[in-house]
Amino acid sequence: MRRTVAVVAGTLIALACAREARATATLMNGLGGPRGYGTSCMPPNDDGSYPLSGMPGLDLTPAFPMGLHFYSGSYKFGWINNNGSLSFNSAISTYTPNAFPGAPQPMIAPYWADVDTRTPTECADINYPSGGSYPATNTCNMGPDYSAPPTSNGVWWSLTPGQMVITWDQVGYFLCHTNLTNSFQMILTATGCGGLSPDGGVSGIDFDIEFRYNQCEWETGDASGGTGGFGGTPAQAGFDSAEVPDTDFASLPMSRMAGISTELCNNSNLTPPQPGIWRFSVRGGVIECPNAGKPCVTGQPGICSAGEYQCTAMGATTCVPLTPARPSQCNGLDNNCDGMIDTGPCPTNDVCSGAECVPKCSEGSCPAGDSCDNFLCVETDCIGITCPQGKRCSMGKCVDECSGVVCPLGQVCRFGTCVDPCLGLNCGMGEICQNGICVPTCPCNPCTSSQTCITTGALKGACIPTACANMTCPAGQSCEAGDAGPGTCVDDCKGAVCPPNQICQTGMCIPHVTPIDAGMGLMMPDASMPPPSDGGSSSGGGSDASAGMDGGSSDFGDGGKKSGCGCRTTSPGDGGAVAIGLGLGLVGMVVRRRRRK
Question: Is residue 534 predicted with pLDDT exceeding 50?
Answer without folding.
Answer: no
